[in-house]
Design goal:
heterodimer, A: about 240 residues, mainly alpha, Four Helix Bundle (Hemerythrin (Met), subunit A), B: about 120 residues, flat
């Protein structure tokens, strides 16, 4: 069936049809809430028991990159909302323009995330055999991107944390497992979202979205905003555990 | 959340602009608040701000404020279900001796000591 917004037999009005599609997306998003909720619960329980190690791990993340990424993702939610508005008022060129902006901001997010992940690989902070929270402190020459000043602060923090948790390396690894697990799953959702945005863009360039029928723009928008909400929680949970020391 | 007929409500770009600026300001505030020592309340403040931001996104970007009651009910049911998951699991954990730190897992040092501060 070619889906361009004709009324299906099971619905009385087009509006009822659209509300049903939106409801379906919301029910899917509720299952996603439970999915991410369960993961955040596991994180919370571990964070409570191994707080010193989690705080240490959090302080090795780049607040600047994480903060910029938060703003980038919020901006992409705004452009997505504007794409939905453009569809509702029938400005066909604007739909495509805002969809392109949303995809671009999504890719800026991926780019910054890539820089962050690459740093963690260089610093031996990826869970596995070579995980070593002390790597940069013990081999400062190998971590040239960390200034001497920051290195001193980190070394000091490591000493204090070791006094609280003698098995810091193992427990910091738990933090980094949570970090890669949660940000990785979030990124996977964004990759799916970017795919959906390309599909919307293809259709919007053909001009099929009208004020009468723009359900796909609306429902993909809901999904994209949900992914934004997940990051709204991940940012303080992962980057801001114990910054005031 | 008022009674309305859903899909036909169009949120204006001005509203979206106010929301996005508020969200960005709240991001700044949450970073600022993280640098103040509030003891165990740092996480409370961080999560309160995050929940405020999420609420703005749900109500305005996701149009929940203008959605039919039925959709609003699904959203609230979802949040309620999440609350059950969190509340039930947490109440189990805080009633366990190991978890409350009376016999802290931190004292169990693993046998692998390959990585230490030199």
């Amino acid at each position: 069936m070619h889906r361009t917004g004709e009324l299906y037999g099971q619905f009385r009005t087009l509006e009822q049809q659209k509300d049903s599609a939106n409801l379906g997306m919301w029910i899917f998003l509720v299952t996603e809430v439970m999915f991410f909720g369960g993961i955040m619960l596991v994180y919370t329980l571990n964070r409570h028991v191994y707080f010193p190690a989690f705080a240490m791990g959090s302080n090795t993340l780049s607040l600047k990159l994480g903060g910029i990424n938060t703003l980038v993702l919020l901006a992409s939610s705004f452009t997505m909302a504007m794409a939905v508005w453009s569809a509702q008022v029938g400005k066909k060129q604007l739909i495509s323009m805002f969809l392109v902006l949303t995809v671009l901001l999504g890719f800026v997010f991926f780019g910054i995330k890539y820089v962050e992940y690459a740093q963690k690989f260089h610093h031996h902070l990826v869970p596995g055999r070579s995980f070593d929270i002390f790597y940069c402190s013990n081999h400062p020459a190998k971590c040239s991107d960390i200034s001497a000043e920051e290195m001193e602060v980190e070394r000091d923090l490591l000493k204090k944390t070791l006094a609280l948790d003698p098995d810091l390396n193992a427990h910091a690894q738990l933090y980094y497992s949570a970090y890669f697990g949660m940000t990785g799953l979030h990124a996977l959702h964004m990759i799916i979202g970017a795919g959906l945005l390309f599909w919307l863009l293809k259709n919007s360039l053909m001009g099929i979205y009208t004020p009468q029928w723009n359900t796909p723009v609306d429902t993909v928008g809901l999904y994209w905003h949900f992914v934004d909400i997940v990051w709204i929680y991940l940012f303080p949970l992962l980057y801001l555990i114990d910054r005031h020391k | 959340m008022s009674e309305n007929n859903g899909s036909h409500h169009i949120v204006s770009p001005a509203t979206y602009l106010i929301i996005i600026l508020t969200l960005m300001a709240l991001t700044g505030i949450t970073v600022w608040a993280a640098f103040i020592d509030l003891q165990q309340f740092n996480i409370v403040v961080a999560l309160a701000i995050a929940t405020g931001k999420a609420t703005l996104v749900v109500l305005f970007f996701m149009h929940a404020k203008y959605s039919p009651r039925r959709t609003q009910l699904v959203i609230i049911a979802g949040i309620f279900w999440l609350a059950i998951l969190l509340f039930m699991t947490m109440s189990d954990y805080i009633s366990r001796v190991d978890y409350r730190g009376l016999r802290s897992p931190l004292t169990q040092v693993s046998t692998r000591k390959t990585h230490q501060l030199s």
